[in-house]
Amino acid sequence: MSLLDRVRYCQQRPVADYRRFVVAGEPVGWVRNALAERIAGEAAGFHLSPGALVLAPSPDGFDERSQAMQDLLRRFEREGLVTGWRDEDYPVAVAYGRPPLMRLERAGAPLFGVQGYGVHLNGHVGRGDDLRLWVGRRSPTKQTAPNKLDHLVAGGQPFGLSLFENLLKECAEEASLPAELAAQARPVGVVSYVTEHEGGVRNDVLFCYDLELPEDFIPVNHDGEIASFELWPIAKVIERLAETEDFKFNVALVIIDFLIRHGLIDPARPDYVELIAGLRYQPAIPLSRTAGEGGAQPAGLGG
Predict the structure, then answer these.
(1) What is the pTM of this model?
(2) Are 193 and 204 in contact (CB under 8 A)?
(3) How do residues 192-228 score in pLDDT, each as one tens digit?
(4) Domain 3-10+116-277 is classified in which CATH homologous superfamily?
């Protein structure tokens, strides 16, 4: 067990088991071969092309594509294939900043390997040897990663909100952070990964924020997603990260990034470069399959 193990977990890419998911001619995700074949055989608007499950050319509009996905996922929910329905949609696009091609219920995103986004806040107190990090423990009733250790604030990025609006919302719901304090959070970059996780593909970009908090701030959860908070010395955080799997898998990556940026992981480590490289996914694995009807060559797992 090591910090590098946490990073390598997020680099599991069994490409042979999956094919591209193509929407309106654009590769936006990955879906298991068996599931793709089933969908193409049963669901209107979907068909197979070499190496891809395609939603196109009909339905051909944002609303129509969104409804086709909603209908399919609702059927999968009734069958138990999709669980933990949240009534929270993700935008589906080729890449960050590109116009969304449709919206998709968050619970179904891993089945189609579409790129999801989130905001993660490192709430820290003190500096240097006195640096401490607020750690949350997820509720035992959470659909995903119950009882795992988490950040002070973290949440998926829903359709229709800006990153900043979502950060303020999550800060209020998860930790009772006043808006004027939450607004002081500093954007410090992203962590990204593509990995097979719990039967699907997690294809995520996490926007990371640091917020130095006053000594007297005590977080209080309002949305029921966090059971408790503790303020840990950074040495305890590092020990638990390196020696256990107690932290939620993607939270571990964001904290490793925090440790590197604050000089708590330095170039004296032999795995320093590999740790840094593993925190940002780069689609550099060429595949022999075509992406879809246009015949474009995908560059590996990713949105």
Answers:
(1) 0.89
(2) yes
(3) 999 998 878 999 999 999 999 999 999 999 999 999 9
(4) Nucleoside Triphosphate Pyrophosphohydrolase (3.90.79.10)
